[in-house]
Structures are given as structure tokens and as C-alpha cells.
Amino acid sequence: MPLTVWQPSDVLKEMKHKKELKFLIDRSNKIYKDYYSKKPIFLYAKQLKVCNKKIIDFLYTKGYLFDDIESINILLNHFEIWLFQFNEFETKKTKLNEKFVFQKIKESIPYPKNEINKLLL
Questions:
Q1: What's the pLDDT tens digit per position in 29-41?
Q2: Could you say which DSSP state residue 64 is in?
Q3: Burial track 97-115 (b if 16+ CB lie within 10 A, e otherwise)
Q4: 41 to each of 2, 62, 76, how far by Cα in Å?
Q5: What share of the chain is helix, strand, coil (3-state, %, to 5)?
Q6: Domain boundaries, the chain
Q7: What's the pLDDT at 103?
Q8: Rounded distance, CA 97 to CA 30, Å?
Q9: Whole-number Å distance between alpha carbons of 9 and 14
Q10: What global pTM score does this model have?
């Protein structure tokens, strides 16, 4: 049976993926804060949708590279449910400058801050 040899490049790859996820999460948090504190209009909500979709895509394509798959799944659940809710509300809006305050469903998954922190440590 061949031995698995640790490669320095494995650590570099993991660091790169954590850095990429951190960038996407930080970007989403910034958009979210700006949206709620400055202009809760549909245009900025759509901007948040684009960023959150990128997080979902990242988690599906690179989530398996993280050791904590449970946290990856919790993040996916949160962002997918958010996207499903947004898509439902989005069909009711037509103008980008319309006020848009996202009302999350009571049963939805709260923002998974602990899981994000675990993944980015």
C-alpha cells in the first residue's frame, strides 16, 4: 500500500481556497451592510444576489476541498434558501430603483457565522 506523502502545495491550495471564500463572504457582507444602511432598493438587492450566487458556485466546485464538510453543507443550505426566497420576491419587482426590503421566512436558516469562522480559521 503506497504511503500518502504530504505536499507543501496541499497547504498552499487550502490557503488559496480559504482566501477565495473569505473574499466572497467579505464581499457579500459589505454589500449586505451597504444595502441595509444606505439604499434598500432592488438594484442593490440584485447585487447581493449575484455575490451570493458566486458563493454557492464556489461551495459546489471547491467545497469538497475543505476538511469541514458539515460547515460547507450548512453554508450551502443558508445561501440556497436565501436564493430561493429572493427569486420568489424578485418576480414581484420590475424597477431597479424600487424600494426592496427582503423579508426572510421565519423557518429559514440564520446566517451561519460560526460555520464561516470555522472554515476560515
A1: 999 998 888 888 8
A2: G
A3: eeebeeeeeeeebebbeeb
A4: 58, 32, 25
A5: 70, 0, 30
A6: 10-120
A7: 78
A8: 20
A9: 9
A10: 0.85
